[in-house]
Amino acid sequence: MDFALFRKLLHNLLTVCVTVYEGEPAVLAAFEDRYCFRKELQPMFTAKSLSYLTDSMKDSVFYEIVDKFEMCLFFFRAEGKVFLVGPYVRAEYSDQNTQRILIKNRMPASYAQSFKSYYTTLPLLGSYQIQRTVIACLESLCPACPEYAYRKLLGFQEEPKEAKSYRQEPIDYSDIYQRYDAENRLLGLIEKGRVEDVMQAFDEMMDRSSRLTGLFTSTAYQSPSSILRALARKAAEKSGLSVVLIDQITQKAVQRLTSSSSIRKQTQYNYEMLIELTAAVRRHLINTSGYSPEIVRVVEYLSLNYTQNADMEELCRISGYSASYLSKLFKRETGKTMTQYTADLRCRQAAEMLRETGLSVQEISSYVGYLDNNYFVKVFKKMTGKTPSEYRASLAFHR
Length: 399
Prior knowledge:
There is one protein chain. With 399 residues, this protein is an alpha+beta fold. The chain is 59% helix and 8% strand. Strands 1-4-3-2-5 form a 5-stranded mixed beta sheet, sandwiched between helices. The longest helix has 25 residues, at 263-287. The chain is globular.
């Protein structure tokens, strides 16, 4: 069988990553590095576990992993080689579902942003769709291929660590920033009419040896909707909206568009993306009206990391100011200290969850960054005039 053609067919038909494993540890290590969001909560996506599973797997069986984050991986053996199809997801991204997953695993809200970025880069697929495509390709290239059974693996059931001992590692958004920097360079050259430099920049993006190749051949660039997304992204970015938030909104549209062949649905998804992006820009402009660019950057950082205590060294770095001057400037422009601003963000999120979910006050408290529930109740009452329970009760009364 032509394995290179088989892999390419699966990749093109399913628009999903297909990894071929022949026993090389480096292949599984690279898979773990790229796709494992949290090792302790995704043990089956680690190189060690995948090595064990592939060594003990049976021939003529399709295996599907479904982990605690509801990420899936499909794998099987064909003529001595193991094919890893994925990861992928079965459902569209949902903020409430993300809250449920993070709370269940005792993870704070600050993980939601990076989780959303991670989740929406994965294609929407169903196991039956993958099985049908794999069988069709196998039968086309290898008419004598055996029949395959199917087995679902739900993962190693490990208890997550307690919230008080859970230490969050820095969240790396460098790929997103790198891609936007490259786009800005290209647009800047186009704006200035520097034709030769534009040609060179474009060639660098497409050059297989370039570090940018992976970025510009990803699902973030998909025609023809990619043109609309690129223009919308740039318009939103000019407003000062965080590129992390812009990318989350537009990547969610990519995921939905990839799963649909209906022109009507694709038009609807593009429309919804534009509305969501425009609404996000409006909120940003209202929330940062009158702020200096330095304070806007600080506000963006606090909004993305509000469940953690502010890292003053990092805030000084992104603003370019000393700690004492930054504190004074922030209070002067926003009317609040950074601690008060962070508490306000936490309480806004908590109020939304009290309105929209049936989660307990304790669960919401931990999710928004307060491990001490009594302290959370005190802060929430100071901000809203009601305890969380009173706030929720008042909502029920008015319905």
